[in-house]
Amino acid sequence: MINRKMETLLNEQINLEMYSANAYWAMCSWLLEKDLDGFANYFKVQAKEELFHAEKQFDYLHDVGGKVTIKAIEQPSSAFGSVLEIFETALEHEKSVTKSIGNLIKAAFEENDFATHTFLQWFVTEQVEEEATVSQIVSKLKMIGDNSSALYLLNAELAQRKFNVATGGAE
């Protein structure tokens, strides 16, 4: 059975994952308003991934005898100046999620909660992938600069991204 401290921290992480989904929906919406459907698709898939993460944590907390406490989700920003700004914002957000997962792992270790420590390893791997992917897109966008043809090609590439329900990740 999970202790109260870990239960509280996991509930905070569930809330953060749900905030992440909302932030990515806001980014998706801004991009759709600009007719950048491929970039919007990237964030639509991201939102689905974040909800998958929240559900995975929700289920785990119940599996170990914890209580899930759903809290109000803070409203994310929906004002952006460019595609690059959106992806830079997403990268900074993913870094904050990585830090939060790291704090959870540290707490699980300190609490001798080896089950939770093991459970969280999947999220460590996931965050490495998340940060690397967004970082690569930021690099590409910086390389592209004002080249609308290159932006169009990257937009088309990101339109192919799909959410894999079986793995909870993108393809």
Question: What do these coordinates show?
Answer:
The protein has 171 residues and is mostly helical. It is built from five helices and two strands; from the N terminus they run αααααββ. The protein has one domain: Ferritin, core subunit, four-helix bundle (Ferritin), CATH 1.20.1260. The chain is 74% helix and 2% strand.
Which helices and strands appear, and what pairs or packs with what?
Layout: H1 4-33, H2 37-63, H3 83-110, H4 114-144, H5 148-158, E1 163-164, E2 169-170
Antiparallel strand pairs: 1-2
CATH superfamily: Ferritin, core subunit, four-helix bundle
- Briefly note the CATH topology name: Ferritin
Structural class: mainly alpha
SS element count, helices: 5
Q: Could you give the count of β-strands?
A: 2
Strand order of the largest sheet: 1-2
H/E order of the elements?
A: HHHHHEE
Biggest sheet descriptor: 2 strands, antiparallel
**CATH architecture annotation name:** Up-down Bundle
GO molecular function: ferric iron binding; ferrous iron binding; ferroxidase activity; identical protein binding
Subcellular location: Cytoplasm
InterPro entries: Ferritin, Ferritin-like, Ferritin-like_diiron, Ferritin-like_SF, Ferritin_DPS_dom, Ferritin_prok
Protein name: Ferritin
